[in-house]
Specification:
The record marks 17 as: Substrate discrimination. There is one protein chain. By secondary structure, this protein is α+β, with helices and mostly antiparallel strands. The protein folds into 3 domains: 7-168, 2-Layer Sandwich (Alpha-Beta Plaits); 177-229, DNA polymerase, domain 1; 245-359, DNA polymerase, Y-family, little finger domain (Dna Ligase, domain 1), CATH 3.30.1490.100. Helix content is 37%, strand content 20%. It is built from 15 helices and 14 strands. It has helices at 16-24, 49-52, 62-68, 79-94, 122-137, 149-156, 172-176, 189-197, 203-206, 211-218, 220-229, 262-277, 312-321, 347-352, 354-359, and strands at 8-13, 33-35, 46-47, 73-75, 100-104, 107-111, 141-146, 164-166, 245-256, 282-283, 286-293, 298-303, 334-342, 345-346. A 5-stranded mixed beta sheet has the order 5-6-1-7-8. A 4-stranded antiparallel beta sheet has the order 9-13-11-12, with helices on one face. A 3-stranded mixed beta sheet has the order 3-2-4. The longest helix has 16 residues, at 79-94. The radius of gyration is 23 Å and the shape is globular.
Length: 363
């Protein structure tokens, strides 16, 4: 660990959307609530803890959630309300530090190495934030306190819901050793399976592999695995992280062919362009078309034109043209389409050196 480790919090609202619904409608309290539209194409946005007992989880098809928990109460999402609560919570964070990195409406990293309040410790700061959230929003949040971001995120999940867990610098190595390897950030099912083949199932077992061995097997990712196994993460909290991509997508009631997608692509392009226009001082260079087939395979096609799209019409035209790059039978059908803009750069730099950006297309 660094000689003077940071003090990082990860604050995560508990079952956020569902908890807001239960707060605002007392008849829902203590009952299994699923925030989702009903229908074969809908997915679960959030589930109350009462619904999670039955195996209902976010991103699950709503129809499966209904099978798992027939008595669940389905509530359509109200994102305007959720965003208003999220802004209030963000204001509470800002009383303590300006180093806030939001991850979504319901979670954020905070660097409280130095705070505005002068509280004696990061633990005291976390408690003060959780108390303010409870008193001012009538909701609960869980928090993790640790010397870096990835440990703080693990810690915030340790005593959920409405919990606090602290990992002090001298506890890091002992805390990590027995954890399953899948708890490390970036270790998904594929990487976990590759590590299991090597007999590695815990973080402690990962440490038995030298840095050289890991780099030989996994390249640059091997170094990251080595660092994580010892609790090393030098990524700082990034307030005002620049936007990497803006997009809009839609899931259809009935699957459509590529030829039938054009009006939907143009409609979504309007939403994406509106979001792009809100990125003051920055412009996007790459158009992205996202598709999901009827059998749930995801496809993306992208293009970085010599001159960036300068209107919603140009964005729409390019996105529609990207359908020609989809190498699938004409009769293939699609359940979802999305339109995105990526490759953001500063407007002033782009306009001053358009030839430079044309020469170096985004990946």
């Amino acid at each position: 660990m660094p000689a003077s480790p940071r003090k990082i919090l990860h604050v995560d609202m508990d079952a956020f959307y569902a908890s807001v619904e239960q707060r605002d409608d007392p008849s829902l309290r203590g009952k299994p609530v699923v925030v989702a539209w009903r229908g074969a194409r809908s997915v679960v946005c959030a589930a109350s803890y009462e619904a999670r007992v039955y195996g209902v989880r976010s991103a699950m098809p709503a129809i499966r959630a209904e099978r798992l928990c027939p008595q669940a109460i389905f509530v359509p999402p109200d994102f305007l309300r959720y965003k208003a609560v999220s802004r209030h919570v963000r204001e509470i964070f800002a009383r303590h530090t300006d180093l806030i990195e939001p991850l979504s409406l319901d979670e954020a990293y905070l660097d409280v190495t130095i705070t505005k309040t002068g509280l004696p410790s990061a633990t005291a700061t976390a408690e003060a934030i959780r108390t303010a959230i409870r008193e001012e929003t009538q909701l609960t949040a869980s928090a993790g306190v640790a010397p870096n971001k990835f440990l703080a995120k693990i810690a915030s999940d340790w005593n959920k819901p409405d919990g606090l867990f602290v990992i002090r610098p001298h506890q890091v190595e002992a805390f990590l050793a027995p954890l399953e390897i899948g708890r490390l950030p970036g270790v998904g099912k594929v990487m976990e399976a590759r590590l299991r083949v090597l007999g590695i199932t815990t973080v402690g077992e990962l440490r038995t592999q030298s840095l050289l061995e890991l780099e030989q097997r996994f390249g640059r990712w091997g170094r990251r695995l080595h660092e994580l196994s010892w609790g090393i993460d030098e990524h700082s909290v990034q307030p005002d992280r620049p936007t990497l991509q803006v997009s809009a997508e839609d899931t259809f009631e009935h699957d459509l062919t590529l030829d039938e997608l054009e009006p939907h692509i143009r409609r979504l392009a309007e939403k994406t362009w509106a979001a792009h226009e809100r990125e003051y001082g920055r412009v996007a260079r790459t158009v992205v078309l996202k598709l999901k087939t009827s059998d749930f395979h995801s496809l993306t096609r992208s293009l970085t034109p010599t001159v960036r799209p300068s209107s919603v019409t140009e964005l729409s035209d390019i996105a529609c043209a990207l359908r020609a790059r989809v190498d699938r039978p004409a009769e293939s059908r699609y359940r979802l389409v999305g339109v995105g803009l990526a490759g953001f750069v500063d407007r002033d730099s782009y306009e001053a050196q358009p030839d430079l950006f044309a020469a170096f297309p985004s990946p």
